[in-house]
Amino acid sequence: MLRNDIHKVLIIGSGPIIIGQACEFDYSGTQACKALRECGYKIVLVNSNPATIMTDPVMADATYIEPLNAERIEQIIAQERPDALLPNLGGQTGLNLAMELSKKGILDKYGVRVIGVNLDAIERGEDRQIFKDTMTKLGIETPQSEIAYSVENAETIASRLGYPVVVRPAYTMGGTGGGLVYNVEELRAIVIRGLEASLTHQCLIEESVLGWEELEVEVVRDAKNQMIAVCFIENIDPMGVHTGDSFCSAPMLTLSDEVRQRLQEYAFRIVESIGVIGGTNVQFAHDPATGRIVIIEINPRTSRSSALASKATGFPIALISAKLASGMTLDEIPYWRDGTLEKYTPSGDYIVLKFARWAFEKFRGVEDKLGTQMRAVGEVMSIGKTYKETFQKAIRALENGRHGLGFAKDFNRKTLPELLDLLRFPNSERQFILYEALRKGATDEQLFGLTKIKPYFLGQMRELVELEERILQHKGGLPPDDLLIQAKRDGFSDKYLAKILGVLESVIRTRRTALGIVETWHAVPVSGVENAYYYYSSYNGVRNEVPVSSNPKKVMILGGGPNRIGQGIEFDYCCVHAAFAMRDAGYETIMVNCNPETVSTDYDTSDKLYFEPVTLEDVLQIYENEKPEGVIVQFGGQTPLNIARELADAGVKILGTSIDSIDTAEDRDLFRKMMERLAIPMPESGMAANIDEAIRVAGSIGYPIMIRPSFVLGGRAMEVIYDEEMLREYVAKAVGVTPDRPLLLDRFLKEALECEADALSDGREVYIPAVMEHIELAGVHSGDSACVLPPVSIPDRHLDTILAYTRKIAQELQVVGLMNMQYAIENDTVYVIEANPRASRTVPLVSKVCDTQMARIATRLMLGASIADLDLRPKVIPHYGAKEAVFPFDKFPEVDPVLGPEMRSTGEVLGMASTFGLAYYKSQEAANARLPTEEGTLLVSLSEKPDSAAKVISAFVKLGFRIIGTEGTILWLKEHGVPGEVVQKINEGRPNVLDAIVNRQVCLVINTPSARRDARADDASIRKAAIKYKVPYLTTLAAAAAAAQGIRSARDSAGGVKSIQAYHANIR
Q1: Does residue 317 contact residue 230 with C-beta atoms inside 8 Å?
Q2: How crowded is the C-beta side of 731, counted as CA atoms within 13 Å?
Q3: Helix 659-666 to helix 796-813 angle, to the nearest 10 degrees?
Q4: What percent of the chain stands above pLDDT 90?
Q5: CB 381, CB 596: distance < 8 Å
Q6: Which end of the chain offers a freer environment for a tag, N or C, measured as fewer CB atoms within 10 Å?
Q7: Comparing 518-522, 532-536, 1013-1017, which segment has the lowest mean pLDDT?
Q8: 357-388 in b/e burial notation, b at 16+ Cβ within 10 A?
Q9: Is residue 911 a contact partner of residue 926, using CB atoms and an 8 Å limit?
Q10: Where are the beta strands (DSSP E) in 452-532?
Q11: DSSP category for residue 889
Q12: Which residues partner with 903 through β-bridges?
């Protein structure tokens, strides 16, 4: 029964994408908005992340892209006066904020009720001591543990429990601040970090259950206390690896019915006592030797696991949770099998596996090691009929250049002892190392002893290795038909078979098709709604279960695959909008994607969802089965573009910009020739396939140079090189460089202002909503740079040039749809850096600041509309949007948090205001690096000292800040008329710069690094300390200048809050 005592609901989002809290909360928040609006409620949404579907103005009645803190949310509550707050769909951020708002009396002050969870219940779930006491009352065992409130306290507890122990801070997610420790020194370091990270300044010191089975149950409960177990998840990696990093399966494949029953019974008892309405994730550890089950933790909210459980079972947990929070009960919601949802039980003759995706290669000096703190940046989910098929499907979905388990890196060339040594600690390559260890003769006993991965999973992998060895006996040609048939049924991809046999992928495809070995598609029915399904493929099916319409107006959209640094939620945003626009235009839409965290893989985003890897093999078979009018490849980032040429060669019609135009833009040689023809300047450049060519090119261009491989996204392996020694070091490490895929070398534009323009084109006319100005100068990847639109310091003549160049290039490439252009302005000349005739990371940002639905409009242009038809005109934008990137440096404390040409941010936030200064201030506030508005002490350490530096630092002096710094910096500042006091360098004695940060004597650090990597050690310690002790720090003078402006604006007025709908209403 719907509640009629509430009319307007506030939903708190989870903020920027960070490790441990990713786009699964965009998915759950979007579902909640849909469900509650369907029930007739008005929705007020607050989130700081501009890249999400959730923050689109169409999703809520009032959408606030504002910093997520209690002060801002109180401003929103005062303005909007919601009756209720739904906090359990915004991850840990949403829960923590709800607790804070309640404890400060803000909810009572404005009469806001919390729905979906009981805040006392959250405390019972999140506060380690209360949780432990509750479990004891319920008769459910927890690992032996005690609460520590100080380091000394923790040492006493650990010595009593015996090492190793696990440290778990309260009120955090993604294992933040915690870890497994083996000695007292490690304990001290982790507990200091954990107490800092915890909302309640407490850590649980817990006996280690390392090596036990890790098991999860996803429970949904309603107001009548009806409970259902939606999904049982078995982590294939044992305890000791965070569930976000763990390889896992649904259903549980090796657990007895008796254990499952006990887990369900315990989970129901816990959820009832905590009193959550909606979804709860419960995590257990099981010791198979003794049968002992202990509760590890609960998440009284939708979580990463609930997104996986939803997609694995067809049970949309966030949607149902929102309906239950509004007063409905399970017996009022439909269930495809047994009438209504209180009768739900997990079912299905398929297996689901989740495999994580990491980004260790992005962080120099990070050890690839997995533990109790999450490190993954994304994940894939695969569905199949057998474990072996589903496992190999997950591997080919990962998009890491591997299409099977064998011959990864140099593992095949290692000896068995070397491989066994690599397996001593969990890492991101574990499954690939296991495969080669089995090939080299490792026994199940050896491998179980090292990894605690159960013999069932090792046995399945052994069978794959044995089959592969038989296939390898037929190198240079096709294997016998029976072997090929078996290989396909066991999940070997066409591409991997082609690689290991040394034949073309098309040869494998032609032969298996002739043998009738093709994918059949099978349905996953959706619970809680009428007549909804999505589909997966198998080579082990009997017949097709997917109904195919003869509708000629049918289009296929290829998604972006797993999240990773450089390709994130922004591309999913574009795919979702494409599906919405197609549907509005009367087209049947077909989505292909394999990322369980996203809105694109929600059951009702498109008319038909194929939950499949975005590979040539899978996409081509869906295309041949569905026969759509065409395929959209320009919205899913590099993923679909990587297979676009092969799709076109196989006869697939690509909608929008042609593949030839995309290749021209990607191929530096072709693109440079085009720029010469159009008389548009580019920085001098060259290509090199080896070190001699690279030295010759660098000599003719002149150092410094920017170097990178061709065909990458996210600035992968891009670096600024200052001399031949650095060049030799780079080329020696570069992998896979060939004459076909050479290294690209460009003159590095020093002190250049970077900017970009996003354009829409119909092949003739071009519309450019705005130019975006980067705050960091050239040399920082565009995805990592803060930026502002409209621009604040680009002269009109340069803006006119940028618009003219963008039009010329879009017309020359005959772009149909989206194009992103990147420029740099040096010495009064506008240079083209690159053209991307596809969706880019900036599309959601431009869409929200400028009120131009870029992806939707681009889709209509692909369907044949013209710019003139859509009545697109220049706009006057009376506000500013400042984007700031968010980095995972707190998860990698050993990494120097310095920005460069390779992208390292995981997400972004947006600050919006009527002035640039205030917008920038809000962007820093949203990124949890709030600039100090009170007068205080500023620590300055400048490696390079351009004349502009004195002007920037003097702006802080005028704002009343006291300046301290190292001797060289202070003497130079004094010479330029800026007063300051000397503090000692780290190696000069005590107290030094580090002490000043640790003792919180400074409120802001400006520390510009040396351009040379080998001269950064002292600086790096300052930057790392700033992160550890949560002191805002800036590593570029451009950001420091913006910060001074922001502080000045915030002192005048910290600014109110305003919905995006209100901002849009003022655009003319």
Answers
A1: yes
A2: 21
A3: 130
A4: 70
A5: yes
A6: C
A7: 1013-1017
A8: bbbeebbeebeeebbbbbbbbbbbbbbbbbbb
A9: yes
A10: 520-525
A11: G
A12: none
Phi, psi at 912, each rounded to 5°: -120, 135
Buried (b) or exposed (e) across 654-682, using 16+ Cβ within 10 A? bbbbbbebbbbbbebeebbebbeeeebeb
Does an H or E element contain 154, and which?
Answer: helix 151-161
Q: What is the pLDDT of residue 126?
A: 66
pTM value > 0.85:
yes
Nearest-angstrom CA–CA distance, 922 and 69: 11
- Using the 8-state DSSP alphabet, how is residue 411 labeled? G
Half-sphere exposure in the Cβ direction for 751 (13 Å, CA)? 8
Distance from chain centroid for Cα 1016 = 29
Q: Strand locations in 914-1031, DSSP E? A: 937-942, 962-965, 981-982, 1004-1008
Segments of 48-144 assigned E as strands: 62-65, 84-86, 113-114
Is 1015 exposed, middle or buried (CB count within 10 Å of its CB: 0-12, 13-18, 19+)? exposed
In 13-118, where does DSSP find H-type helix?
24-38, 70-80, 91-103, 106-110
Cα atoms in the Cβ-side hemisphere of radius 13 Å centred on 36: 33
Sign of the Cα torsion 473, 476, 482, 484 reads positive
3-state secondary structure of 478: coil
Edge-first strand order for the sheet with 165-169 is 145-148, 203-207, 165-169, 179-181
d(CA 191, CA 796): 54
Q: pLDDT, tens digit, for every residue of 989-1020?
A: 888 888 888 888 999 999 887 766 555 556 77
Instruction: Supply the mean pLDDT for the chain.
Output: 91
- CA dihedral over 557, 558, 561, 567, signed as positive or negative: negative
By C-alpha distance, which of 253, 272, 172, 265 is closest to 217? Answer: 265
- Give the residue-averaged pLDDT of 392-398: 97
- Written as one letter, the residue type at 697 is V
Q: Which residue's entry shows tokens 């679909």?
A: 640
Distance separating alpha carbons of residues 402 and 473, to the nearest angstrom: 21
Residue 326 has pLDDT above 70, yes or no: yes
Across 625-644, average pLDDT: 95
Alpha-carbon distances, residue 379 vs 20, 243, 387, 911 (angstroms)? 12, 12, 18, 29
Nearest-5° Cα angle at 448, 442 to 450: 85
- 698-739 pLDDT, tens per residue? 999 999 998 887 655 544 577 888 888 888 888 887 766 666
Residue 926, CA distances (Å) to 19, 26, 66, 68, 643 in order: 17, 17, 7, 6, 37
Each residue's pLDDT tens digit, 64-93: 999 999 999 999 999 999 999 998 888 888
The predicted-structure confidence for 748-760, as pLDDT tens digits, reads as follows 888 889 999 999 9
Mean pLDDT confidence for 275-289: 93
Reduced to 3 states (helix: H, G, I; strand: E, B; else coil), residue 648 is helix
Cα separation of 833 and 836, whole Å?
A: 10
CB 88 within 8 A of CB 324: no
User: Is the per-residue pLDDT at 433 higher than 50?
Assistant: yes
Residue-wise DSSP of 238-300? -TTS-TTTS-EEES-SS--HHHHHHHHHHHHHHHHHHT-SEEEEEEEEE-TTT--EEEEEEES
Say what the pLDDT of residue 688 is.
87
| CA gap 285, 882 in Å, rounded | 45
Q: Which two tokens stand for residue 336?
A: 């495809």
